[in-house]
Specification:
The chain contains no helices and 34 strands. By secondary structure, it is mostly beta strands.
């Protein structure tokens, strides 16, 4: 229930940071980061937090991402290198990512289903994203620099099938700001789709909107964690998309100038655990499968969801959607069931300023959630059809 079982500190006398952690097959944990301000540092601990082994790599600075490989070893991203380690942390080989354009920093690397590897790298000076696919012998199969595209600062990449990959990145939309994006590519790096979302806060566009991590959900959909900056405050969020890039829901957490969400992981009970920080502390957030904190409770039939939209249970599975438009606008209301399946879009199109009521009949009772999109407001919520 969030109670601390034990607390340990690790590292040296300098600035020591852990960026990533994975559970191993023997129910232990391996963590990576850097120690003494710069040197890459990997160590393995048991369930009580005791160190089994630890290794430092002075030639490789500030490792921020690593993954377990099929041989129970590790693949590590460090600056412009990827480093292959055995199960005890000893180095097997390394690869330097270089280019005539300039230095690329590796952000994410994974082993692929064909026993090869794929990595993402960024050139912050030129605002470029690069993705390289290797075979199992570390020969380059393809190497793509996305020069003509507006996304940059690509972070994590995951394989979703034998022929497709999904990664999170940033899109620069001049002069509006920077926005997180989700992108799918095929087996040779061609872009299949990219989706991003302008977020509005108090009817104004948020200028910077960051995706920090994402993972696959049950059903092979995507859940993203991140934060956005709005004047002096940060607002943390999680966001869910279906595998075809359909937007499902968006949930906000916290409201502090330094609050951030970093990593998100799927738990065995199909819920999510999220790590983050505020001004002085690290914190964990545990949600249910719908992204809500705490125990899910049944909601009464008459639900004032916001000042803009009200949802009223009329009985006999009939629901009334009542909304008032302060200005004329295109508007869309998508309804999803508890599994994330799109049920219907009862409201879609251009509406003039005014008050509207639309009734919709559901096939069955239960919990549903909605995604409302308009040019002056985006919001998500949930409601229950009880009668």
């Amino acid at each position: 229930m969030g109670d601390t079982l034990w607390t340990r500190t690790y590292g040296g006398s300098g600035d020591d940071v852990v960026f990533d952690m994975h559970e191993t097959d023997d129910s232990c944990y391996v963590l990576c980061g850097y120690i003494n301000d710069s040197s890459s540092y990997i160590f393995k601990i048991n369930q009580e937090g005791d160190i089994i082994w630890e290794k430092t790599y002075p030639s490789f600075n500030s490792s921020r991402s690593f993954n377990i490989t099929f041989d129970n070893g590790f693949i590590l991203a460090s600056n412009s290198y990827i480093l292959k380690l055995d199960s005890s942390g000893d180095s097997l080989w390394c690869f330097y990512v270089k280019d005539t354009i300039g230095s690329f920093e590796v952000k994410s690397v994974i082993q692929t289903s064909d026993s090869g590897y794929i990595l993402t790298a960024n050139n912050d000076v030129c605002a470029l994203t690069r993705i390289i696919k290797f075979d199992s012998n570390i020969s380059v199969e393809w190497d793509t620099i996305y020069v003509g595209h507006i996304f940059y600062q690509t972070n994590k990449i995951i394989q979703v099938s034998d022929s497709e990959y999904v990664f999170i990145t940033m899109i620069s939309v001049y002069p509006l700001g920077d926005y997180g994006a989700l992108c799918k590519i095929d087996s040779v790096g061609n872009i299949l789709w990219t989706t991003f979302w302008y977020l509005k806060h108090d009817m104004y566009l948020v200028e910077n909107y960051y995706y920090e991590d994402f993972c696959l959900t049950q059903g092979s959909n995507f859940i993203i964690s991140g934060y956005y900056q709005y004047y002096s405050n940060n607002q943390c969020f999680i966001k869910k998309y279906l595998s075809d890039s359909t937007f499902v829901y968006y949930k906000k957490f916290g409201n502090h100038y330094s609050t951030r969400f970093y990593s998100i992981n799927l738990t065995e009970d199909a819920s999510y655990i999220i790590t983050g920080k505020d001004s002085t502390n690290l914190f964990l957030v545990k949600t249910d499968s719908l992204g809500d904190v705490g125990v899910e409770e049944e909601i009464p039939g008459d639900i004032p969801s916001s000042d803009f939209l009200k949802i009223i249970d009329l009985g006999n599975r009939q629901v009334n959607f009542h909304f008032i438009l302060p200005i004329s606008s295109d508007i869309k209301l998508n309804i999803f069931d508890i599994s994330g399946r799109l049920i219907n879009t009862p409201i879609s199109g251009y509406y003039s300023k005014g008050e509207y009521e639309i009734n919709y009949e559901f096939e069955r009772k239960g919990v549903y959630f909605y995604v409302l999109e308009s040019k002056f407001l985006n919001e998500t919520g949930k409601f229950t059809v009880l009668r």
